[in-house]
Design brief:
By secondary structure, this protein is an alpha/beta fold. It is built from 15 helices and 13 strands. The strands form two sheets. An eight-stranded mixed sheet has the order 8-9-7-10-6-11-12-13, with helices on both faces. A five-stranded parallel sheet has the order 2-1-3-4-5, sandwiched between helices.
Amino acid sequence: MPHHPLLLAVRANPELIALLERVAGSQGLGVAKIHQYLANGSRVDLSQLPQDAPCIAFVDFAADPEQAIETAEKLSANVAPRIWPVAVSGTSDADTLLRAMRAGCQEFLRWPATDTQLESTLSNVLRRVATTESEPSRNGRLVVFIGVRGGVGATTLAVHAALALARRPETNTLLVDLKRQLGHVSVYLNLINPGYSFGDILDNIHRLDGALLRTMLVPHSASFSVLCSPDNCTALSDAMRRQHFRPNPTVEVIERVLMLLRAEHDLILVDADPGLPETVALAQRAEQVFLVASLDIGSMRDVARYVDLLGRNPDQQRLVITRATRGGVLTPDMVADATGLPIAASFPDLSEPISSAINAGHQVPQQVHGFHAGLKAVLTLIDGQAVPAPHKSLFSLFGRQR
């Protein structure tokens, strides 16, 4: 590790502080103190901590376990610096221990502890820190496709764009299906869904690193992986049965997930759901956003409202118009004028040949010129060197199953 970690004593009793200072001193590490829990609206300016070194926070659970758990969650979600919480408690209650680990605690230190026990705990955490920081890092670009309503062709466009971009073996490409359930990316690509989704990343953010992330992805080729959407309604069914619904992720969690995705991939494409707050957060942080809308009055209204939500940014955002017909009442230029955004591509109404190709397990063939002309325009904006279409007129969209 290029910088020595800093130990944090959080709401710690004097004996714990003395123990941390003694062990830290023997290893040449520093100790800082946070005298209150980060709970019930309490705020601590974590930006004052060194930004170039990881922090290992020993959270004392003795005073209030509930506030300690909330504190661990906030610390583990911090992006810069990365903070690794450790639970310190005089009880080994299984429920408290489990909740502490889910909140992001990397280790559990039973109190009272000896120098040797603290050194062992610290050593375990430092190994994880070293493993995480030694992983090769990229700074991948994020491209988000948002179909402003269902059935406008955003998934088809995202899948074909990902396949074309992944033909460059030096580019490590990830396609994320951001639907909370029953997304179609894995269906179009004929992938065996492993049961992991973006929701699982959010649930495991406290322990997520490159190695764990890679176990959640499905490889399509050597340089192309997919993060699937759940292919069943189990999560929704369980939530209804328990009457307990997953809270929306915080901005800090989204930023931490995105930081890891960028570090692992050169290019991240997201087939997004316009109804999710995660979509808005990712779109606001993306290098490029393609808003996909069919040429009808409902989509025209929807894309205008969505642009208002995101904040109009013509340098980042582009329109993709599908099912455009000549001589119709509406024209692509009308949508562009209404939203103030440039048009990346306009596709004619190709519902029949596109559906036939997908249902047969093929990419849309090159003979469907209207589709590939529009796809090439989108690819040129993302990466001018991407291959816009397969060499064969019918090339398996699905590939071999995994």
